[in-house]
Design goal:
CATH class of the largest domain: Alpha Beta
CATH architecture of the largest domain: 3-Layer(aba) Sandwich
CATH topology of the largest domain: Rossmann fold
Organism: Mesorhizobium wenxiniae
Domain ATP-grasp: 136-327
Family: Belongs to the prokaryotic GSH synthase family.
Pfam family, one: GSH-S_ATP
Order of helices and strands: EHEEEHEEHHEHEHEEHEEEEEEEHEEHHH
Largest sheet: 7 strands, mixed
Keywords: ATP-binding, Glutathione biosynthesis, Ligase, Magnesium, Manganese, Metal-binding, Nucleotide-binding
Shape: globular
Length: 348
């Protein structure tokens, strides 16, 4: 089958990215892999949808570095395919990276993903579900029991009052954003640099204030779910602890956090079970839950990363089961046609 990976830009891809690991697993299983960027879709006057793609040459790539080098070369001369020549579109872009400099690109995956799904292409995660999840507000649609007390506002007075009511302090961060950018721990409303923090964090719009969870000092746990269930192989869960750098509240790897092995607890599995029904309903095929203590801080539904790191950590290939699951979806699509909706097929 032919799998198209939709990314922010081919230039910004790296050998260590999860998308690279997935592409390598797909190629090694005999599939054709192409990469798509936000400006590559074409909707023609006859309503035909086409896409310009970088085609990975057929080869027995042994390492992510070899595949990445081939991708860079392939991007120099793209080819155009009818969308019907693509079996699966895997949306793997981070919209927040394009909001400022390329706002037209931020929603391209969701918009054209919908058009592709309407034409019978399997699109994961489901674009309608992703449309609901384009900010951290998505977390508020999950059960209150699994998420920390949260205020979302641009009103400094409201945020100060919220901080004042929580003796453990709060985390303040932008509603839109990723990678740990502009995330601050505020211990009390009288912090001398509070105004500067508000100014820095609110530049992107609304702010989230969340009750600080003391267990966050030890970092958070990224747990992967596939088809609504914890991703596991060879007795290992696809999960790791992200430990913040000394003196930093952020545990994001991009923000100098480090990754360590973690024992997945019944509490973590209970959180996964609690969010499973909505994730399935929303067509969320592959997601990353970020857990601290008994609370869920974020659900990464666009570009959950870490599978490459996990492979080395546990000596376990977690990318191949993801490709196998996509193969099964294609078998179901061929058997049932469009009688099964894309959102439902995405998590079967």
């Amino acid at each position: 089958m032919r799998i198209a990976f939709f990314v922010n830009s081919i230039e910004s891809e790296t050998p260590g990215y999860t998308t690279t690991a997935l592409a390598l697993a797909a190629v090694q299983r005999g599939h054709s892999v192409v990469y798509v960027e936000p400006g590559d879709f074409i909707l023609r006057p006859d309503d035909g949808l086409a896409v310009s793609v970088a085609v990975l040459p057929d080869a027995s790539y042994k390492t992510p570095d070899k595949l990445h080098a081939a991708l860079k070369d392939a991007a120099k001369q793209k080819k155009t395919f009818a969308i019907s020549d693509i079996d699966i579109v895997f949306l793997r872009n981070d919209p927040s990276l394009d909001v400022t400099d390329r706002p037209w690109a931020a929603n391209a995956g969701v918009m054209f993903g919908r058009l592709a799904a309407e034409r019978g292409v399997i699109v994961v995660n489901d674009p309608d579900g992703l449309g609901q999840a384009q900010s951290k507000l998505y977390l508020q649609s999950f059960p209150e029991a699994v998420r920390p007390a949260t205020l979302i506002s641009r009103n400094i007075t409201e945020i100060r009052a919220f901080i004042d009511k929580n003796s453990k302090g709060c985390i303040v961060k932008p509603l839109q954003g990723s990678g740990g950018k502009n995330v601050f721990h505020i211990a009390k409303p009288t912090d001398s640099n509070l105004n500067q923090i508000f100014e820095a964090a609110s530049g992107a719009g609304y702010l989230i204030a969340q009750v600080y969870i003391p267990e966050a000092k030890a970092g958070d746990v990224r747990l992967f779910l596939m088809n609504g269930l914890p991703l596991a192989r060879d007795g290992n869960y696809a999960a790791f602890r992200r430990v913040p750098a000394k003196g930093d509240v952020r545990s994001n790897i991009h923000a100098a956090g480090t990754a360590r092995k973690v024992k997945v607890t019944d509490t973590m599995l209970g959180i996964a079970e609690m969010v499973r029904p909505k994730l399935i309903s929303d067509g969320m095929f592959l997601v990353g839950l970020d857990i601290v203590g008994d609370k869920l801080l974020e659900i990464n539904v666009f570009t959950p990363g870490g599978l490459t790191r996990l492979a080395g950590m546990y000596n376990t290939d977690f990318a191949t089961p993801v490709i196998v699951a996509l193969e099964e979806k294609r078998t179901l699509r061929r058997a049932y046609g469009k009688t099964i909706t894309n959102s439902r097929l995405a998590t079967l």
